[in-house]
Amino acid sequence: LAKTTQPISMDSYEGQEVNITCSHNNIATNDYITWYQQFPSQGPRFIIQGYKTKVTNEVASLFIPADRKSSTLSLPRVSLSDTAVYYCLVGIKGSSNTGKLIFGQGTTLQVKP
Amino acid sequence: EAGVTQFPSHSVIEKGQTVTLRCDPISGHDNLYWYRRVMGKEIKFLLHFVKESKQDESGMPNNRFLAERTGGTYSTLKVQPAELEDSGVYFCASSQPGTASSYEQYFGPGTRLTVT
């Protein structure tokens, strides 16, 4: 899986929009970009997945530029409960892959009141 | 719908003892994964079952670890004998049939293993 780089930590305040950028310079043509969220004492939780341009769901938006060498997870109007670790993963979506997830250090987001 | 469950939530054992962790995936999920995070490190893949068959066990650290998935339902991960470096949080995840490569996996809360 392509190596990813993301900030170790970020701080924000309630009500703000938070953007977490992930670099994946070696992303391959067939790679998809996936983000997971992990709260303390819980397992990671799938947030969003995309291949190019923009993907939006009820939780977040994922912005992917044309060259796909980076991606940005956008969390609108965060609350204290959004305090968590956010992981960016890059890999192949296809029958040849076992679905093994490779986690990096992630970005610890601290939302303050 | 019940999520992925793991038992026990926390286990404290002495070095040399045996521990068995259990994972119950979401009903109907053929794919079952084990991961672990040891202190200060990243979450690491251990192995992947498709139904009762081991699809990928490349992450199993050594032969002290044995994973089984009888009948393609729940899975157990046995550590025998446990060593101090086995301490950490063991996560189980499952995903729907045919989506092994979709990266949308459902994780359990984890089992915290402490070896003293």
Corresponding CATH architecture of chain B: Sandwich
User: What is the residue-averaged pLDDT of chain A?
Assistant: 91
Structural class based on helices, strands and sheet pairing of chain B? mainly beta
Number of helices of chain B: 0
Strand order of the largest sheet of chain A: 1-9-8-3-4
For the largest interface, the chains and their residue counts are: A-B, 25 and 29 residues
Q: CATH-wise, what's the superfamily of chain A? A: Immunoglobulins
CATH class of chain A: Mainly Beta
Q: Can you summarize the main beta sheet of chain A?
A: 5 strands, mixed
List segments of chain A where confidence is low: pLDDT < 50 over at least 5 consecutive residues: none
Q: Radius of gyration of chain A, Cα only, in angstroms?
A: 14 Å
Number of helices of chain A: 0
Total strand count of chain B, please? 11
Amount of beta strand of chain B: over 45%
Largest beta-sheet characterization of chain B: 7 strands, mixed
What general outline of chain A do the C-alpha atoms trace? globular
Shape of chain B: globular
Mean pLDDT of chain B: 93
H and E string of chain A: EEEEEEEEE
The CATH homologous superfamily of chain B is called Immunoglobulins
Summary?
The complex is a heterodimer of chains A (113) and B (116). By secondary structure, chain A is mostly beta strands.
List the helices and strands and how they pair.
The complex is a heterodimer of chains A (113) and B (116).
Chain A: E1 9-13, E2 18-23, E3 31-38, E4 45-50, E5 53-56, E6 61-64, E7 70-75, E8 84-92, E9 107-112
Parallel strand pairs in A: 1-9
Antiparallel strand pairs in A: 2-7, 3-4, 3-8, 5-6, 6-7, 8-9
Chain B: E1 5-7, E2 10-13, E3 19-24, E4 31-38, E5 44-50, E6 53-56, E7 65-68, E8 75-79, E9 88-95, E10 106-107, E11 111-115
Parallel strand pairs in B: 2-11
Antiparallel strand pairs in B: 1-3, 3-8, 4-5, 4-9, 5-6, 7-8, 9-10, 9-11
